[in-house]
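Progress report, Aim 2. The chain analyzed during this reporting quarter is listed below.
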Amino acid sequence: MNPRIEINYRKLVHNTEVLQEKAKEHGIELAAVTKCFCGIPEIAQGYVDGGVKYLADSRISNIKKLQELPNPKILLRLPMLTEVHETVAFADISLNSEIETIRALNREAKILGVNHRVILMADLGDLREGVFEEEELILVAKEVEALSNIILHGIGVNLTCYGGVIPSVKNLSKLEYLGNAIEKEIGRSLEIYSGGNSSSIYLLDEKSIPERINHLRLGEAIVLGTESAYGKNIENTHQDIFQLVGEVIELKEKPSMPIGEIGMDAFGNTPSFEDEGIRKRAILAVGRQDFGSYDIFPVKEGMKILGASSDHLILDVTDAKGDVAVGDEIRFNLRYGALLSLMTSEYITKKIIY
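Predicted structure tokens for the chain:
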């Protein structure tokens, strides 16, 4: 069925192995993030085959899908108070910054007769989740340590995702400092120092990641083969594991300039156009309802994306190499935002290629 996403399983395992080996050289364990493909267990198995220790997702509904896989599961988004039961029941570890939530997790863990592990998040300037003040962080850590059914498993940070703050020796050394301060207060070592996501990969290549950082949460680096601090490709990885395939439903020569008064398009924007004369245009049966406003890139040389409405993607194929015909399939490589949207869309068929 078209449109579809094809997932190359062999390439996914390869990228996982490459990143796993890179991390292992620095004594780092990986949590492979499954949210970019909605926690589909048949895809997550590629992470497992590639050797990662942890599986991680932002949504409990996805973590539920992963229960048959043996790896410890990490809930990446801070738990809502309304999902503490499911968090304790289905996730082995959760990231947290609110002591009220951690108390609720403790009550639920006591009811279920289990221990739940917590990674306490510090905000080092990106201004998304995390305790910002050092004194508050230590006070929270001391209370968590005293809870009956919660294990203070480690300390972590998230960078780049909101504020665009790039991981550095300076801010990750601050994470080390805060972890050391907590260890001094509670009288034992923390198991995990979680130093961020795919934007921290470049520090491994520079061999400058602080010594106590022993955990990273990777999604984009594995599934797209790119680090997310500067958008560079990672050596010896594939960037085409996930490809969108769309089908041509119209192929005609038309003017490059619309005819008539220009107003707003379907999304409230006023478009502008450049007159390039008559061009050959292909319309594909996929649109912004599927991939949002995120970047996709035609694999075939000479094709240019002109725009998209909710259900239609319009390409200039005048200079495309080789013939294009109605019914042809056109392939696209993706950036992370487009991958998230496409995998979430119920209108996109997902096909694993083994």
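The chain has a mean pLDDT of 96. Residues 7 and 122 are 35 Å apart (CA to CA). These observations will guide the mutagenesis work planned for the next reporting period.
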